[in-house]
Amino acid sequence: MILLSDPRVIEIPVADCGEPLAEIVTVPAITLDPRERDELGAYGRVRAGVLQRLGSASDRLPTGIRLLVIEGHRSPAEQARRFALYEERLRRSGISDPAELRRQASAFVSPVEVAPHCAGAAVDLTLVDADGAELDMGGTVNGHRTGDERWCPFDAPGLSPTARDNRDLLARCLREEGFVNYPTEWWHWSYGDRYWALVTGAPAAVYGPI
Ligand SMILES: [Zn+2]
Predict the structure, then answer these.
(1) What letter does residue 14 receive in the DSSP assignment?
(2) Radius of gyration of the chain (CA)
(3) pLDDT digits (tens, 9 = 90+) for 44-83
(4) Which CATH topology does 7-200 take?
């Protein structure tokens, strides 16, 4: 399992293709959930090419099942704020060496340079039925914030057959459009960022921080 804190991720070069961010709501087949809404509306945007792929992934779903996007882009400033906050927590716990602080913080919060959401390359998403009710995924999106860690990994052992099937349905439509999953979070998928490049063997990321 490759984690974002793996030093090989930051070594991946970025050849940014310069695509703009695009509003997810412009694709009517996809539903945008407001629970992570930020002041600037960044959460509702991803790179134009990522949005196009999401649209195609959505077309692959059975009738009545839709993608529900929770969070797309995150501003580099917001990511840096979260990283600094975590570093401060570690400093208060007694760690003072700057390199060690960075290493430990990177294990839990992505540094801006590798954060897939900052590149507009990542989405947190799940599936909903025709009435807008979330399908049973055997755990909630961002479950690690609510003490639900056990069900966060995509391959969490002990999932019900229904939850397993629903995760597989989500994975199938996204993988067919080139997305890769972050294995510790079943809801996190990305295309074109450094992590994606490392996992797929691409020579460079096509999306860097924006
Ligand atoms: Zn995510």
Answers:
(1) B
(2) 17
(3) 999 999 999 999 999 999 999 999 999 999 999 999 998 9
(4) Muramoyl-pentapeptide Carboxypeptidase; domain 2 (3.30.1380)
